[in-house]
Amino acid sequence: MNLGQAIFLFIAGILGGVINAVAGGGSFVAFPALLFTGVPPIPANATNTVALWTGVTASGGAYRGRLDVPARVMAPLVITSCIGGVVGALLLLRTPPHTFLRVLPWLMLGATLLFIFGKRLSRGQASGIGRDATALAILGASVFELIVAVYGGYFGGGVGIVNLAMLAALGMTDVHAMNALKSVLGSVINGVAVVIFVMSRTVYWPQAAVMILGSVMGGYFGAHYAMKVSSSWIRWTVIFIGAAMTIYFFVKAY
Description:
11 helices, 254 residues, mainly alpha, globular
């Protein structure tokens, strides 16, 4: 890795951290950047996960004041995030990534549409997954989160958007609160995946170190300033990133 590549990856890390903090989808920038600098696909995926995990964690610190989820809701989501993240990471190390890349654009399309129409789908769900959440609502959210976590541990591109889509469909309406919970769940999913990738020696550490610095900066300051703008602006940012990722992965896969 030369100086030019290091600067390029640092900037990609900042952008990835900002995008993850505001809407999710930082891998749309960071993963291709690693491929462009010569990192093979599976190590690039693992390195990208390690780098952006730090940014998601940093953004979670900035959002901590917005997190207001009862333990009876949080605990099942964290547990399923942990299990799914482990399963997804192990799948990545054992299967060729090109198969999943052909499915990815369809998942991104569905997630973006779910986020757009999530409020309509949640009408009639008075409790959603708030303090008055029913056991059935929590179970449904946990099953959905398990699927999201497997996807996140395997590839992770746009996992934040998928989580936001799930939260919107389950009745959450405060975008900042959704981002706070998304950051926690994303930290868990990527955190357990990071452990597996490190133990398997799949990570390219020089590239990861540079991107970690950028991701932490972008993650924290991106979340801090995102809370100063309107929820409507953030919502449209999510939709724009989701649409861009969907088009990109359709072109790449087909």
